[in-house]
Amino acid sequence: MPYSPRTVMSPEHTKYLIDQIRKDKIIYACEACAINLACILIFLFSATQETSIARDIMMFGSVIMMLGYTSYMGFGNLKRLKRIQQLESTLSSED
């Protein structure tokens, strides 16, 4: 169920939602680390290749993938952080 500011939730549900969003942030950060490690390995493997065109494509592609997913994850986690802050403020105003 998507959260909208007009939806009235119980404090327990709000705390549960905050906890789940925090766990999602951790999962995305771990995924970004795994993808970055895979891209670094691809980059290192491609550096040993003899063919210059294939090497350049693999190196460029791995760097673009690493930067792209890290940016995607960072912006997504910023959005989740704002949502957590919004939920915490509604939770504190309910007390």
List keywords for this structure.
84% helix
Give a topology summary.
Elements: H1 11-47, H2 52-94
Helix pairs in contact: 1-2
* Weakly predicted, low-confidence segments: none
Helix content: over 70%
Shape verdict: rod-shaped
Number of domains: 1
Can you write the helix and strand succession as a string? Answer: HH
Secondary-structure-based class equals: mainly alpha
Overall mean pLDDT: 87
User: C-alpha Rg, in Å?
Assistant: 20 Å
Describe the protein.
Helix content is 84%, strand content 0%. The chain has helices spanning 11-47, 52-94. The protein has 95 residues and is mainly alpha-helical. It has one domain. It starts with 10 loop residues before the first helix and ends with a helix. The longest helix is centred in the C-terminal third of the chain and has 43 residues, at 52-94.
Concise account of the structure shown:
The protein contains 2 helices and no strands. With 95 residues, the protein is mainly α.
